C-alpha cells in the first residue's frame, strides 16, 4: 500500500474531506518542524486552504494535535488489547503484540513520531485523557508478560520494568525507520518479536 493510500485509510473516520486534509497536513508539519515551530498558516498552506478555513474545522492548533494523538493512541490500545485477549500461549500473544505494534510504528512512522513525541504539547485535559489510554496500553502488555511469568514460560524478575522496555523498543521504531532502508515494516515486526521473546527468556513460537 502506498504512503498516500495508508494516510487515507488511517484518517478515514475524519470527516468532512477538508478536516481530513487538515489532519494529514498537520501530521506532516508536526513531524517535520515539531508542534511548537508549526503555525496554523503552515498547516493550512499544506492543505491548500486559507488559515481562516482551518478554524472552521479546528478552533486551535492543539485541537489538531489532539485529533492526531487520540487516533494514534487508541489504535495502539486496540491492537495490544486484541493481542492480550487473543488465544494461544503467552509467548504467542506477546509475539503478536510486538510484531503488530512495531510494524505499525514503521508503516505509519510519520504519524507515530507525532503521536509519541508531541504528547507533552497537549493541553492539560487532553494530556490527562491520553495518559490514561497509555496506562491501559501498558496494562495490556504487562498482562501478557505476567501471564507468561505465572505459567513459568517467561523468566522476568521485573514485570513492570520489562513492560516499559518492550514498549520503548517498539515506539523507537518511529524515530529511526526509513522506508528507503533495507528492512520492510513486516521484517521489523518479525525481528522485534523475536528480540522480545529472547528478552523474556521464552521459547519462540513458529511464525
Write up what this structure looks like.
This protein is mainly alpha-helical. 72% of the residues lie in helices and 0% in strands. The protein is built from 11 helices and no strands. It has helices at 3-10, 17-33, 40-46, 51-57, 61-85, 90-107, 109-117, 124-150, 159-171, 173-176, 185-199. The longest helix is centred in the middle third of the chain and has 27 residues, at 124-150. Residues 1-6 have low confidence and may be disordered.
What oligomeric state do the depicted chains represent? single chain
Provide the residue-averaged pLDDT: 90
Residue share in helix: over 70%
- Strand proportion, as a percent range, falls in under 5%
> Which segments are poorly predicted (pLDDT under 50) over 5 or more consecutive residues?
1-6
Rg over CA atoms: 18 Å
Order of helices and strands: HHHHHHHHHHH
Q: Tell me the total number of β-strands.
A: 0
Query: How would a crystallographer describe the biggest sheet?
Result: none
- What is the number of helical segments per DSSP (H or I, 4+ residues)? 11
Q: Tell me the overall shape.
A: elongated
Spatial gap, N to C terminus: 23 Å
Strand-pairing-aware structural class: mainly alpha
Amino acid at each position: 500500500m502506498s504512503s498516500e493510500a495508508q494516510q487515507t485509510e488511517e484518517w478515514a473516520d475524519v470527516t468532512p474531506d477538508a478536516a481530513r486534509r487538515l489532519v494529514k497536513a498537520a501530521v506532516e508539519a508536526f513531524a517535520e518542524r515539531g508542534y511548537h515551530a508549526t503555525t496554523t498558516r503552515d498547516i493550512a498552506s499544506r492543505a491548500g486552504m486559507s488559515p481562516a478555513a482551518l478554524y472552521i474545522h479546528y478552533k486551535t492548533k492543539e485541537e489538531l494535535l489532539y485529533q492526531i494523538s487520540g487516533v494514534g493512541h487508541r489504535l495502539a490500545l486496540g491492537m495490544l488489547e486484541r493481542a492480550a485477549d487473543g488465544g494461544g500461549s503467552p509467548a504467542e500473544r506477546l509475539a503478536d503484540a510486538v510484531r503488530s505494534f512495531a510494524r505499525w510504528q514503521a508503516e505509519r512512522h510519520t504519524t507515530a513520531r507525532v503521536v509519541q513525541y508531541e504528547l507533552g504539547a497537549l493541553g492539560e485535559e487532553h494530556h490527562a485523557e491520553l495518559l490514561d489510554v497509555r496506562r491501559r496500553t501498558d496494562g495490556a502488555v504487562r498482562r501478557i508478560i505476567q501471564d507468561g511469568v505465572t505459567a513459568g514460560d517467561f523468566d522476568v524478575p521485573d514485570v513492570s520494568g520489562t513492560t516499559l522496555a518492550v514498549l520503548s523498543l517498539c515506539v523507537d521504531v518511529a524515530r529511526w525507520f526509513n522506508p528507503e532502508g533495507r528492512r520492510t515494516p513486516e521484517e521489523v515486526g518479525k525481528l522485534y518479536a523475536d528480540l522480545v521473546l529472547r528478552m523474556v527468556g521464552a521459547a519462540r513460537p513458529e511464525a
